[in-house]
Amino acid sequence: MKELYSALLIPFDEKGQVIESDLREVIRHNLDHNKVDGLYVNGSSGENFLLSTDQKKQIFKITAEETNKKAKLIAQVGSLNLDEAIELGQYATELGYDSLSAVTPFYYKFTFEEIKNYYETIIDATGNNMIIYSIPALTGVDMTMAQFDELFANEKIIGVKYTAADFFLLERLRNRYPDKLIYSGFDEMLIQAAVSGVDGAIGSTYNVNGKRAREIFNLVEENKIKEAYEVQHVTNDLIEQVLDLGLYPALKEILNTKGINAGTVKKPMRGFDPSKKEAVKQLVDQFQL
């Protein structure tokens, strides 16, 4: 059974504060309606890099309370501030999160040894398992096979959230590390990742379209590749329109349209354009979200 995780969307009010009741509602929608196996908390979709440490802790706590051990939880704790990453990792571990994840440190041109030390320091300080978050398009960190070899030598590094379009590297990783977890991070390339043998997927659009992602995995497991591609085509039609409307504002507006309060995005992101509300209603109807 492939594992499906929603990269959890976080409802904010106009002042950028977390709306606790709405966050609990979004969590329940993911678990009860989308039937995901777990939640990836405080990742890019959660607008993590716009949040204070206290807000990140608040989100970790609310999510742990609301799921109440009924779903798997991955805590993304990566930060340019290593002290913050450690503090968040310790906090999430105390809350019972199943594993940690951390984006590769970015902006500055860190050496691989610095990146490796970053992961090892978080692991040593928390004692928890680690899932690397590889997203080179946003971090500029494009790791090689040899570098993955070094990281995966640490038994506490149990896998990777692989948000990259290099399917040759993905195949090599899958072939060499059958016991490490590989989660697809590109919703629009799920079919290719599924055929490549990933263990599951983590994505923002699963907050609204998780059932189709599950269908793709199921069809691939039944070797119905053509049918799986058809579902991916529909999924990508949806994704194209969501991207045109603005990814995170549009995903939240889809939930709002369905009666699930998802608030707005945190500044400096721009909130959803009210003139496009009808377009979102049409999306909800067209794609049966």
Structure, explained:
This protein has one domain (3-222): TIM Barrel (Alpha-Beta Barrel). It has an eight-stranded parallel β-barrel, surrounded by five helices. By secondary structure, it is of the alpha/beta class. The protein is built from twelve helices and eight strands. Helix 4 links the parallel strand 4 (99-103) and strand 5 (130-134). It has helices at 20-33, 53-67, 82-95, 112-126, 136-139, 145-152, 167-176, 190-195, 206-221, 225-245, 247-257, 277-286; strands at residues 3-7, 38-41, 72-76, 99-103, 130-134, 157-162, 181-184, 200-203. The protein starts with a strand and ends with a helix.
**Number of individual domains:** 1
Structural class assignment = alpha/beta
Low-confidence runs (pLDDT<50, min 5 residues)? none
CATH topology: TIM Barrel
Q: How do the SSEs run, as a string of H and E?
A: EHEHEHEHEHHEHEHEHHHH
Helix content range: 40-55%
| CATH structural architecture | Alpha-Beta Barrel
Q: How many E-type strands?
A: 8
**CATH hierarchy, class:** Alpha Beta
The gross shape turns out to be globular
Give the count of helical stretches. Answer: 12
Instruction: Please report which band the strand proportion falls in: under 5%, 5-15%, 15-25%, 25-35%, 35-45% or over 45%.
Output: 5-15%
Average pLDDT rating: 97
Strands of the largest sheet, in order across it?
1-2-3-4-5-6-7-8
Main sheet characteristics: 8 strands, parallel, barrel
Which value, in Å, is the CA radius of gyration? 18 Å
Distance between the termini: 23 Å
